[in-house]
Amino acid sequence: MKKIGFLSFGHWSQSPGSHTRTAADTLLQSIDLAVAAEELGADGAYFRVHHFARQLGSPFPLLAAIGAKTSRIEIGTGVIDMRYENPLYMAEDAGATDLISGGRLQLGISRGSPEQVIEGYKYFGYVPGEGETDADLARQHTAVFLDVVSGRQFAQPNPRPMFPNPPGLLRVEPYSEGLRERIWWGSGSRATAVWTAEQGMNMMSSTLLTEDTGVPFHQLQAEQIQLFRDEWAKHDHGFEPRVSVSRSIFALVDDRDRAYFGGRGDDRDQVGRIEGDVARFGKSYAAEPDVLIEQLRADEAIAAADTLLLTVPNQLGVEYNAHVIESILTHVAPALGWR
């Protein structure tokens, strides 16, 4: 059995054929798609976060709205760039969202990816310290966030408060019990997979890795997952970890599917560069269901993960994206033992 959710990058544009022409279109359709996915039996609705872009950038209002309109589906991010975040304010937002959803928040965070502007986190008021990198900044924010979201009491109360305080030091409110165990780190390498396990976070492995050893992407990713699990076993974090992988997977079951994704030409790994470093990108899958089943059966990383996030072309609209999700759930997942 495997949890299957969708991952939306939340694009909007005025391009021909786009169903999301404004930010409002993307936000409202994201809610509708999450509701539809829950009705279809999917397990998760996840959203990428980008700043200074025509994409989703403020996840908590969206996730809270989805939490209020659904009852079962997990809601999450993949991922929030921690370089931009005030960790205490973020802990308040995350706690409130988790309570609204009844404990269904699965919060993916990370150092983030190349952004639309140069050092965009500086415009949000965050600058790495002397001799530090932006990756150091992200990890520092993460350490604070993990500390406060765990419910630690640390703030000295005012002796003459406006409202009565409980005894002792105070914590960030609202606090949602169990949320600390539902924080994920977006890991892009084998080394960060080990670090993620050391920190006691679940791991999200994306469609690219910032290293290349010459082996196929899915094998390198499977190695990354195994390193994460091996390191986790050395620690007593008090809960069993989860691992997700993201894939672009399209079952070609009608003429629309074949028109959009038949023969798209990205059915093999790609090697490129991200910020000057070598990166290996995973291939997309698009085929008739019987062919797709055999292709996916050979993907070692999908087999090793407990959660699969299907990247969806959100600009094609709610109805078509619900069809994409339903096609995987009905034509592919049962044959692979995922359902």
TrEMBL record:
* Cross-referenced Gene3D superfamilies: Luciferase-like domain
Q: Which SUPFAM superfamilies match?
A: Bacterial luciferase-like
Q: What is the lineage of its organism?
A: Bacteria, Bacillati, Actinomycetota, Actinomycetes, Mycobacteriales
**Matching Pfam families:** Bac_luciferase
Q: Which organism is it from?
A: Gordonia phosphorivorans
**InterPro entries, per this entry?**
Bact_Lucif_Oxidored, Luciferase-like_dom, Luciferase-like_sf
Put simply, this protein is called: LLM class flavin-dependent oxidoreductase
Domain spans labelled Luciferase-like: 11-257
Q: Which PANTHER family match?
A: BLL6902 PROTEIN, LUCIFERASE-LIKE MONOOXYGENASE
